[in-house]
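Handout, section 4.2: multi-component inputs.
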Amino acid sequence: MTVRLRYAPSPTGHLHIGGARTALFNYLYAKHMGGDFILRIEDTDLERNIDRAADEFAKNLGWLGIVWDEGPDVGGKFGPYISTERLSIYEHYVEVLKEKGLAYHCYCSEEEIAAERDAAMAKGEVPRYSGHCRHLTATQISEYEAMGRKPVVRFLAANDQELRFHDLIRGELVFEPSGLGGDFVIVKSNGIPTYNFACTIDDHLMEITHVVRGEEHISNTPRQLLLYQALGWEPPHFGHVSLILGPNGKKLSKRDESIVQFVEQYRDMGYLPEALFNYLALLGWSPGGEQEFFNKDELIAAFTLDRVHKSGAFFDAARLSWMNSHYLKQQDAANLLPLVQPLLTDDQVQGLSNEWLTEWISLYQEKISQLDELPQMGASFFVEIPKLDEEANSMLNQETAQQVVKSFHEQVKNTALWTEEHIKPIFKTVQSETGKKGKDLFMPIRAAVMGSLHGPDLHRSLILLGQARVLTRLESVIK
RNA sequence: GGCCCCAUGGUCAAGCGGUUAAGACACCGCCCUUUCACGGCGGAAUCAGGGGUUCGAAUCCCCUUGGGGUCACCA
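Output:
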């Protein structure tokens, strides 16, 4: 039997790194086992649904390199893959449960339930639905209806045995039935099923074999187990992945601004999908060896659930950054060009060929850890005369530096060709003319031409700049 | 608070009863280099505490402590 896993986000925001990692683990395991990976949208919270969010999830998941075999856009034989398009399916199973006497209408208002809960809490007891509406008479029901109350449907959780399941990551997990909170809601008063219900129905009908999800779902599992039991279904295997922690040591909150946590933001900053993919795979999972860099196929080959960590992991932005700089170095500058172009203004790229820009990228490629550092770092190439920074300025105020610059200027002016082979001898000549070498030779020229003592390879920079512009820049600092 | 989960350096982590407790990021030195970076070499830094079990415990068990998750008509 082939393995089937799914990622089932609710379209209430952007894809964040925690969700992306959960999707990634599901994907990697499905592919490792030669099975299917399914994307399903759980949009049962009508109020919080955000337009286009589902498309964004798909877009960003796709960007990361996660591909699904079935989903809202690609279809599949277990569709539809969006909860709100499956309402009639859920209705059917509500009827099934009602016929078995395991589901009933509850007319208690949210206020009444809240009052019960608060009372229980005040007494230090576990909140638990009282079962008030379990056995309503026909008259009571019509009274409630006459009052205009809209019922929810509750599942009759009469279970009094402990619930247990073998978690793929954590091992045997056991729950006391008293902690469940009594009969829980499976259909909200607006007629839409709750997560626990929809999820159970969908996972079963879609023949999901392994449910790998965040640790925050551990406590939902016993309720879902009850549902599987009531429906006479075999539950899938469950595995709960630990949380990704923010700087405060708590579960990442989407509202926490201290950390960049949406996939799209990383894309915009110039992170490569391979780097994020690689980093996320290694967060909370380890193949055990010393290898750090893995491509997708290697990860698929290596990924197993039993090596997923039980403890939470801090999101280490510095490590991601390091990993991205590695992937950036690996790339051909030409491949980076389309990613860099959107980061440059029309003004900057005016009249510049792709070849020129590619060379410009390759000049800085190994110095950056994200692509959006490039425009700033390489800005001096886009202006006629760069502004001298403090260090460069004070260097050029020195008489010895002026000598070097003047001599260099003279040579540049008189050279006919402007290639690496012609530039090298120029430095030789300046060296013998001024008696300067090493730093004393190169730094004044770098300062004069680039406006800074730090920067990429000087020879290549000069060539890219072009003879005319180099001359202009030299003249601008000669006193 | 109830229930549940977790615990190796600052961070990611290897380790599954016998190791000088890997490796990486970050950090600090040094080297390479016309600068910055890259790279190379080196350094500092970890088994939360206490009990057991065992000839032997980072590894197994218990307790404590600490952290986290969850207690919705959100997922």
